[in-house]
Design a protein that fits this description.
heterotrimer; A alpha+beta (605); B mainly alpha (357); C alpha/beta (340); A: alpha+beta; 16 helices; B: 357 residues; mainly alpha; disordered N terminus
Chain lengths: 605, 357, 340
């Protein structure tokens, strides 16, 4: 998963390869959470999650697009970037092998000339590159397969430390088992010709092809980049070259630092003079794209976009009060789009120790939680639908339908408000005479800022209804992950503020890292419930190798339901992300990337 | 503040403008006298102490970062499902696996030998260069606001004191109370929604994110900072007005004011040369310290107006657990506070002859 | 007409607790070369009377009635700017506490120069020379160096000399000295009084001396006014007031003086009771609650100030004969004693 962009000007979900999830903690108390509670009680009728149509031509050519953000990208290096907002910059500047097809979650060739061919045994993946794709200055030369090979290799080096190379590319033969300090060649990546690249895998891997859409596969010229990568921490990011229609503005020596990249202030894209439009579906209408950072007040950000002084929100949604006012205007509401993030928020219960090692106790918790009240702490219905399992509606027939869609709810209650009676019955079944827990206090590590801290309070109050007294330890969002919930030996009984985003639209990326027992790690763990059910593990391992998409989606859909039934984690929100466009632009967004504005397709009217 | 006045001296001081025989020659003489005197020893001692304090501050920042729960930078960088070896390697590459004292030593060496505050974990950009590029921004904001609040606060304070209980006094003090209680963040938002040329009701001044360096376009620089200056200055102006008023009312009851009147001086001269001069010295002290604190970064103002100063950098770095950036901004902030402390102490000796070091 | 005539002066201050009647119908006159001492306890209105002459009691909460005629001109009727022409120039003033009365942040030379240049269009250097001469005249050693001293660098006596120099540097016709020696130790007191006397003799200025100390009056004054509760209760030549006083309050003041032969710190004979509140002044004779000789009429009727001898006026209901008898008895009891 990559990191959620912060919501309500606050913290994102997820484990945070990206450190920056929580840029705008400052905005806490600035009206969003308190006012949102009131608004959440009535469902705005006009929330639609239909994306704007993909533009097929530019309304006008030229002009400047301005995207506003509260914070900076997680990493400017495309090989390190692992954050929805960062992808708003990598997508128009870097060409990965594959890319989403317009405004959809489906993939199509980008740097690749056609979709990869996979051998029968699933262990050899061959990709042909388009000719005529050139690097931006100062490199200027044509992109070759060696550049893609090097891009992936460098991801394994400590100096680059890509956040997902281990998860998706260690299946390549010869991929480093222990991370090298600096990039080393990987024997399983062959480049028989300048436009052909072959990946040899140690086992079939169902999602490998989809992973070729990640920015790690965007070409990096070794001759140019190696000196930068051979530093303790690579500075290639500050000297990066582009393969897409845009490049981050640089000086003659190729440095973007202080030129097109001013951390926390500005990322400026200009046209890549070496881009050949005939090789690319992207429209690249504007001449100049400015990502203006530091808009930590979401109200100012939203109003600035509505005024036409900027064109879209990059990392922070408009606050609930603004959303309400926009939705009530017939003209402004046409500029606002809600996109399912593809991820879900859930409450993780530590299954490795009492009391949540007991299935009935966990089920009782799943029944007693008032998911509606929890959602109200984040803004109510505008924030998304209440989740009943883990694969969200944006997956459609890629797993969501297969798991029963919205009709599958293992722990139903009227209005999602919780069912105390049912919960107490289950507590009795677990051996607690009055249906009330009698054991020692349980621990909960939660965000120290709203809305996470508010959600935790609701959960603690619900747990008290079945006698569970929860002690809340409040820390920053990233501390919650890196010091507690990601570290099994420090893990509390309850992690109330966790969530997971897919890296691409394969249900495996939602279920496997989070619930497969083999993915429990001593640190940077993402199987927060520490769920280790041999039957489920085996089924997941099988599904990982299932190459046929339809069978695979069936398998994951079923696994989704089975995991939900363990109540190891209680899902409660399928989050939407609202993207607001100014009326002076033709909107375009990345459906697969939380609805982030897609500057490659936007144009000035 | 360790300015020690003689026992009988009330802590009341004055501005240089009112001084007798304060011509350039006299000033030079005073300065030369000072340099060979106990004052220079005093300054040397204070500078030494200041440097020691910077050590303490940097050491404390280190300790706080490690002792209190904060995010693990190596784990953050390693990303999803990183195996422990990768995290260990990154920790090593960032030097985070060395013993604490060694990390601290390396850090200090960097500062002293190369004026190098390290590189951001997040984007590998030099912290020194980030702070230095942001410094002019913060200075523009702070010094401008300082001028505004002095220019508003002091005259209003004087006017309120000499027209005590008048309409001017009552309305000034009422407004002051409002300005003190209004959070900068809220005030900034209100002002933006009223006057910003993008989101304001009246399109008057450049809004959030419009800052440009003075070297780039002085007019735009000035216009873009007008709102931030006034918003940042509002509460300070209010505090200073109240302080000047209180001090001046007290001073105007002093015997030497009666003497000044008995000499047949004009009331204007009595107030300005005798009253205000005595009432203003504590204000000078406070002003120096406030300036020092703000030079370390005016976080809220920089945030609401999206001004890329040191305050925002500090804030971002804390959020991102970016230790080198946190260290750098904390040290810079401490540096300004210490420097302004020394400046204020030295100024004291010039302002109040009773103060001796 | 005398140089300074105070006619039926009334000063009231509006305060939160009520109206303070600080001065209630005081009339005094002072001529060139003469010294008028005003004595009384604190709160008797003597300082307010002196300050009012200079317009220094012009506060927002004050009402001033009556007249202060200086050379025939009513100072009370002058606007502040015109009054400033008299302050310092024609009427000089020195105050009780020389530490707090000098500005702590300015050199003494500067403060004197400022006084000169406020009234005379002279160069800084000329003014500085005059300031130096003034310091020399009041007996300050090394006057040129002292010009550059700050007040805190001088002793109390030196500071008061500076105040006197500043008050006299413009040769005023009247010098108002408000408790000029109270804050000083005894030897310095004598020096300062000698100085005032000498300067007065040389220049022929009139001196209005406010003090609570009859000893100081005996040293300096030609005439003495005794004030109580904002009123003059007895007025006459110094010899009369000290030698044959007729008001019970004056008796009390004399009684409370330390006498020669008393051990230092020996018990004095203070007047019983507290000075009255000026907000709630006792009815009739305001002194009656503390007066050992009070009788039926005293609380009822305020006694008028009536002549009792040449240049001697007294406000008391006691019959003049009775007053003289009691005064005589007092004097004999004090035989061997001396005032001052």
């Amino acid at each position: 998963m990559k990191t959620f962009r912060p919501r309500d000007g606050r913290v994102g979900v997820g484990m945070g390869a990206a450190a920056l999830l929580s840029l705008a903690v400052l905005a806490a108390g600035c009206g969003s959470s308190s006012s949102s509670t009131a608004e959440g009680t009535s469902t705005p009728s006009n929330i639609s999650t239909a994306p704007p149509p993909t533009p097929v031509s530019c309304e006008t050519k030229g002009g400047t697009l301005k995207i506003l953000s509260a914070g900076d990208v997680d990493h400017i290096d495309p090989g390190e970037a692992y954050y929805s907002f960062s992808y708003e910059i990598t997508r128009p500047t870097q060409r990965a092998l594959l890319a989403p097809k317009g405004n959809s979650t489906e993939l199509e060739p980008d740097l690749a000339a056609s979709m990869p061919t996979v051998s029968k045994d699933g262990k050899t993946v061959t990709v042909t590159l388009k000719p005529g794709v050139r690097f931006s200055p100062p490199v200027n030369r044509e992109v070759t397969s060696a550049d893609v090979k090097y891009a992936i290799e460098r991801g394994f080096a400590t100096s680059v430390a890509n956040g997902y190379a281990g998860a998706y590319f260690s299946v390549i033969e010869g991929a480093p088992k222990t991370p090298p300090q600096y990039p080393v060649p990987i024997s399983g990546i062959e480049t028989p010709g300048p436009h052909t690249i072959v990946f040899h895998l140690v086992r079939p891997e169902a999602v490998f092809v989809s992973a070729l859409s990640l920015p790690l596969t965007a070409p990096v010229p070794e001759d140019y980049a190696k000196p930068f990568d051979d530093q303790a921490v690579s500075s290639y990011g500050l000297h990066q070259v582009a393969s897409g229609p845009y490049m981050i503005k640089n000086n003659a020596s190729g440095s973007i630092n202080g030129v097109g990249y001013k951390p926390g202030q500005l990322i400026e894209l200009v046209r890549n003079p070496n881009w050949n439009a005939s090789t690319d579906r992207r429209l690249a209408c504007a001449d100049d794209v400015r990502f203006q950072e530091g808009y930590q007040d979401p109200t100012v950000m939203a109003k600035t976009i509505l005024s036409g002084a900027a064109d879209a929100n990059g990392d922070t949604p408009p606050p609930p009060a603004e959303l309400k006012s926009i939705l009530s205007s017939s003209t402004q509401s046409k500029q606002l789009f809600f996109t399912p993030t593809g991820g879900s928020r859930y409450v993780a219960l530590n299954t490795s120790k009492a009391p949540f090692d007991n299935l009935d106790v966990r089920k009782a918790v799943a029944y007693v939680l008032d998911r509606n009240a929890m959602r109200l702490t984040r803004g109510g219905p505008v924030d998304g639908a209440i989740a009943t399992h883990f694969i969200d509606p944006s997956f459609g027939n890629q797993g969501f339908d297969q798991s029963g869609g919205t009709s599958f709810d293992p722990f139903p209650s009227p209005g999602f408000a919780g069912d105390v009676t049912k919960a107490k019955e289950l507590m009795k079944a677990a051996g607690y005479a009055n249906g009330m827990y009698t054991g020692p206090q349980v621990t909960m590590v939660a965000d120290n800022t709203p809305p996470g801290s508010d959600t935790a309070k609701v959960i603690a109050a619900d747990l008290a209804k079945i006698g569970i007294d929860a002690k809340i330890i409040s820390v920053t969002h990233s501390t919650m992950y890196t010091k507690y919930c990601n570290v099994p030996k420090n893990e509390p009984n309850v992690c109330p503020n966790v969530g997971w985003l897919p890296d691409f639209h394969e249900p495996q990326t939602i279920i496997d890292p989070t619930f497969n027992g083999k993915n429990i790690l001593p640190s940077n763990n993402s199987n927060w419930p520490l769920l280790n059910d041999p039957t489920l593990n085996a089924a997941m391992d099988r599904a990982e190798k299932t190459l046929d998409p339809q069978t695979r989606y069936e398998q994951w859909g079923k696994l989704d339901d089975q995991v939900a039934e363990t109540a190891a984690a209680v899902p409660w929100l399928w989050e939407n992300f609202p993207t607001l466009f100014s009326s002076r632009v033709v909107p375009a967004l990345m459906v697969d990337n939380e609805g982030a504005p897609d500057v490659s397709y936007m144009s000035v009217k | 503040m360790s300015a020690s006045a003689e026992p009988q001296a009330a802590p009341r001081h004055s501005l240089p403008e009112g001084g007798p025989a304060h011509g350039p020659a006299a000033f030079l003489a005073l300065l030369l006298g000072v340099l060979g005197s106990s004052m220079s020893r005093y300054i040397a001692r204070r500078v030494g102490w200041g440097i020691f304090l910077l050590f303490v501050v940097s050491a404390l920042t280190f300790l706080i970062f490690y002792v209190f729960p904060s995010a693990d930078p190596a784990a953050l960088r390693a990303g999803r499902q990183a195996n422990p070896q990768l995290i260990a390697q990154i920790r090593h590459a960032l030097g985070l696996d060395d013993p604490l004292y060694e990390q601290y030593w390396i850090y200090l060496k960097g500062i002293f030998l190369h004026f190098n505050l390290g590189y951001s974990y997040q984007n590998n950009v030099s912290v020194t260069s980030q702070i230095l590029t942001r410094l002019p921004v913060t200075i523009s904001l702070t010094v401008g606001a300082f001028v505004v609040w002095i220019a508003i606060g002091i005259p209003l304070g004087i006017l309120s004191a000499i027209r005590r209980h008048s309409t001017v006094d009552r309305s000034t003090m009422g407004l002051a109370l409002l300005a003190i209680s209004a959070p900068v963040y809220w005030l900034g938002l209100i002002v933006l929604l009223l006057f910003a040329d993008d989101i304001g009701k009246v399109h008057l001044l450049p809004g959030a994110g419009s800052y440009v360096p003075i070297t780039h376009d002085p007019t735009q620089w000035f216009l873009s900072l007008l709102m931030p200056w006034f918003v940042l200055a509002a509460s300070f102006a209010a505090i200073y007005a109240r302080m000047v008023r209180g001090n001046l009312i007290e001073v105007m009851g002093e015997d030497y004011i009666r003497t000044a009147r008995a000499k047949g001086l004009s009331e204007r001269r009595v107030i300005l040369r005798h009253g205000v001069r005595a009432a203003i010295t504590p204000v000078v002290t406070l002003a120096g310290l406030d300036l020092g604190i703000l030079l370390g970064g005016a976080v809220l103002t920089e945030t609401v107006f999206n001004i890329p100063g040191i305050g925002r950098y500090a804030y971002d770095s804390i959020v991102n657990s970016d230790l080198p950036a946190i260290q750098g901004t904390v040290l810079f902030g401490a540096f300004f506070i210490i420097v302004m402390n020394i400046v204020v102490d030295v100024l004291y000796a010039f302002l109040d002859p009773r103060v001796r070091y | 007409m005398a140089l300074l005539e105070i006619e039926d002066l009334r000063v009231r201050f509006q305060t939160r607790d009520g109206v303070v009647r600080a001065v209630e119908g005081v009339s005094l006159s002072l001529d060139r070369g003469r010294t008028l001492g005003i004595v009384g306890e604190s709160g008797s209105g003597k300082s307010v009377t002196a300050l009012t002459v200079m317009g220094l009691s012009r506060l927002p909460n004050a009402t001033v009635e009556g007249r202060v005629l200086f050379d025939g001109l009513d100072l009370l009727a002058l606007p502040l700017e015109e009054l400033a022409l008299y302050r310092g120039k024609r009427i000089g003033m020195i105050f009780q506490d020389p530490m707090s009365s000098l500005h702590p942040l300015y050199k003494v030379g500067w403060q004197i120069v400022e006084a000169i240049r406020a009234h005379e269009d002279v160069s800084k250097s000329a003014a500085r020379r005059r300031a130096r001469d003034a310091l020399a005249e009041v007996g300050i050693p090394n006057p040129s160096e002292r010009l550059d001293s700050y007040p805190h660098e001088l002793s109390g006596g030196m500071r008061q000399r500076v105040m006197i120099a500043m008050a006299l540097v413009l040769d005023p016709d009247v010098l108002i000295a408000d408790e000029p020696t109270t804050a000083l130790d005894v030897t310095v007191q004598v020096q300062i009084l000698d100085l005032v006397r000498r300067l007065q003799a040389e220049r022929g200025a009139a001196v209005l001396l406010i003090t609570h100390d009859l000893g100081v009056v005996a040293e300096t004054a030609d005439e003495v006014a005794v004030m109580y509760a904002g009123r003059v209760v007895e007025l006459g030549r110094m010899e009369t007031i000290l030698g044959a006083p007729e008001h019970p309050y004056t008796w009390g003041l004399i009684e409370s003086l330390p006498r020669l032969g008393d051990a230092r710190g020996a018990r004095l004979h203070p007047i019983a009771g507290q000075p009255p509140s000026l907000i709630h002044v006792p009815s009739g004779c305001p002194f009656h609650p503390r007066c050992p000789h009070a009788f039926a009429v005293c609380p009822e009727v305020e006694p008028p100030l009536l002549p009792s001898g040449p240049g001697h006026v007294v406000a008391c209901h006691l019959a003049p004969a009775a007053r003289r008898r009691i005064g005589l008895a007092l004097r004999s009891a004090a035989t061997g004693g001396s005032v001052g």
